[in-house]
Amino acid sequence: MTVTITRRAALAATGALAFAPRLAAAAPAIGAPAPDFALPDQDGTLRRLSDFRGKVVVLEWTNHDCPFVRKHYNSANMQGLQRLAADRGVVWLSIASSPVGEQGHVTGAQAKELTASRNAAPAAVLLDHRSVAARAYQATVTPHMFVISADGVLRYMGGIDSIRSTRVDDVARAEPFLRDAMLAVVEGRAVARASTPAYGCAVKYVDA
Amino acid sequence: MLRLLMLLAGLVALAPAARAVESAAVTSPRSTVTLIADRAAIAPGEPFRLALRQRLAPGWHTYWTNPGDAGQPPEVTLALPDGASAGAMRFPAPERIPFGPLVNFGYEGEPVFTIPVTAPAHLSPGETFTVTAAANWLVCERICIPEEGAFRLEIPVEAAPRATAPDITALFTAAEAAEPRHAPFTARLGFAGARGAIEIAGPGIAPGAVRDAFFFPAEWGVVENAAAQPLTVRDGALTLALQRGPAEALPARVEGVVAITDAAGVRGAYLVGAAPGAVPQAGGGLPLRQAMLFAALGGLILNLMPCVFPILAMKAVSLARLSGAARGAVRAHAASYTAGVVLSFLALGGALVALRAAGGAAGWGFQFTSPVFVGAMAWLMLAVGLNLSGVFAVGGPVSAGGGLAARGGHAGSFFTGALAVLVATPCTAPFMAAAIGAALAMGPVEAMAVFAALGLGMALPYALLGLVPALARLLPKPGAWMEWLKQGLAFPMYAAAAWLVWVLSEQSGPPAVLAVLLGGVLIGFGAWAIGAAQASGGRVGRIAGLAAVAGALALLPMLAAAPPAARAAVDAGSEAWSEARVAALRAEGRPVFVNLTAAWCITCKVNERMALATEGVRRAFAERNVAYLTGDWTQGDPAITALLRAHQREGVPLYLFYPAGGAVPLVLPQILTEGIVLQAIASQGDAS
């Protein structure tokens, strides 16, 4: 079964969410179709999740000034995972959800500059200034990670690894949850731990 | 430069607490953090406490062990001298800190994280016990900043432990009170799909006693942090609806902390845990339709209950009369009776709902807790019995219950129904608890629907008579036997009156029993006088009779004024509080511990079980000859209210310790632990 969301439906959903005091009612669930979204990338091109059907997709919620995100970029862990993804044909989408005026807010130009200066390698940086995708996935922190299989089903959600800290030293010691899950999905294996504790800074939502 | 100024400001702030053993502060614009000891000097082999003390700038927060949707708890690594040992760092009960649609669990203001330490026995007085610590903490507002610091603390070693500055002692006392503690609560928890609930059962939990509650799970992913936890409270248990979090599997045992704010606004945090099982259902867990069905069934069965039976005796008389009447009359009587029953249940239910909404601790059958009501009911039963016995005929207001059948008035049928309900409610208490609990948990409209169903069930046999006249034909024909039946049925009424006097004796003691019996004599006299007047047609007897009834009614305030028996379970080994008793005991030179409590106060009940009834506290009371007085504010004693006001309190609990010879009582925190009580009692030595 394929789920297509018309632009109008997406807008209607966004409008409805604007009045919802809490996160969207339907929580993203492992084994269920991953919620679709349409967001502009760093160049202003509208990208839909459904455009990548047939490929494994990784979603990375990011805020470049969050100490937890910095831990994984300063240690080059994140860039390494992005390159591994590219090598294995995985589409890596970094999603910057911070609205205007909040820490982590980037324009397309700033996103490109950050990608260059950090030597990062995402397939695209998506700008979620209205918190639409964040609400659909109930993203709580940066970095919050999701893996979606080629058939559009959510296979992993949670933390990037097992040690909840901001220390670069902990990266090497941690169990790499996201890496394990991504490789398992690429290789068609079952994900050993499909839902793990996400840790990091709170995602900055647009006021509902 | 700014940093330097902040540092200087920090040092100046610390200067007055010079006696406190507190490390140099690690400061940022967001936080001022120190390591602090609860003693000015420690003794060899003695346990004491260290604490990480955070003073956070407004808007900034740090995190609990389960930080919620984001964040990270503080970490402390201690380096202690050889032979010393330290326990795990203790976290205060967290607050919900909403951020957009997310909710974090943590602290604003000045959280204090205590660490129990035991000094080695081989220390000798004069030495210095040096502690160093490395700590890191994440402090967030809209953005998060990881901070860290190194701390060094030099604590003098002396032969005996020496107390630190009073404000620091108070800081540690407050920290201990803020830590979640064990409680005599049992928890049940379960999930079905995304929905679940946790039920906390224990003493003192009742609808009027709980203002707010929230369950903080110890582990990530068990519950949706941001989801509201709708609260329902019934007598003895509260239920919080939970939404399942993203963790794939639940732990074998779900642990956590439930924070309960009681009616007085005091927040207590209690450690709870349960193996996941069936989803606990709020308020007995009946959907409305089912609750209504059970209520109707229960109402039907109520007809067989001993407390309703006397009323039914009257109804039987009226039915016997009806057996010869026309179909329309039967139908009208059935309708009146049904209306009387249903409207009375609605009135009672409405009163109960209103009382609960007003924060009262009313339980079902609440009207029977009023001695005035019980006394008046006893007299009404007596009067109805006298009427059935033929002492007087109907004509006054009393006829509403008893004389209906004779006159065949529809008002009579209506009031028989009302009377049946009034008397039936105490019977329903044990029997209908689930349905009524469910009703009260559901909300006012649903509650009223359940009460209406209860009434319909009770009236059903008579309603059927009205609807199916064929049934009425089965009733025996009227005749002389009816007068015998009527007179015989007077005796159940007398028995009901006797039972009510017994209820009153339990409630209010001998003076009230005397008052109600005297009133009974007056009612008897009045009935006799009225009966005589009816026979002779005279006026005097009628006036005398009404005067006697009025005299009985005038006795009612005596019932209200009778001293009620102590209501809150007074702890063994304690005596009742009074201003005079405190003065007398202090004049004897004895230290006095005063516990002001109430039956509906959860915080009080937990404190009594966990802090005051412990072996250690009892022993300390005995050793130091402490007199333990309990003041029961369950019914709002004005003398206790005055004492509360004198200590700027609006409600219980209030704990006061009057040291021997000391003039000023020590006011203990509203959340007690055994340690806090023991420390207060021990301070007696310091004071004198």
Automatic annotation (TrEMBL), chain A:
GO terms for molecular function: antioxidant activity; oxidoreductase activity. Residues 28-180 form the Thioredoxin domain. The keyword Zinc does not apply. Gene3D superfamilies: Glutaredoxin. InterPro entries: AhpC/TSA, PRX-like1, TAT_signal, Thioredoxin-like_sf, Thioredoxin_domain. Keywords: Signal. Pfam families: AhpC-TSA (PF00578). The keyword Signal applies. Residues 1-26 form the signal peptide. PANTHER family: OS07G0260300 PROTEIN, THIOREDOXIN-DEPENDENT PEROXIREDOXIN. This is Redoxin domain-containing protein. It comes from Neoroseomonas eburnea.
TrEMBL record, chain B:
GO terms for biological process: cell redox homeostasis; cytochrome complex assembly. One of its GO terms (molecular function) is protein-disulfide reductase activity. PROSITE patterns: THIOREDOXIN_2. Keywords: Cell membrane, Cytochrome c-type biogenesis, Membrane, Signal, Transmembrane, Transmembrane helix. Residues 556-686 form the Thioredoxin domain. CDD domains: DsbDgamma. GO terms for cellular component: plasma membrane. It comes from the Bacteria. Gene3D superfamilies: Glutaredoxin (3.40.30.10). InterPro entries: Cyt_c_assmbl_TM_dom, DsbD_gamma, DsbDN, Thioredoxin-like_sf, Thioredoxin_domain. It is found in: Cell membrane. It is a multi-pass membrane protein. Its main location: membrane. Residues 1-20 form the signal peptide. This is Cytochrome C biogenesis protein.
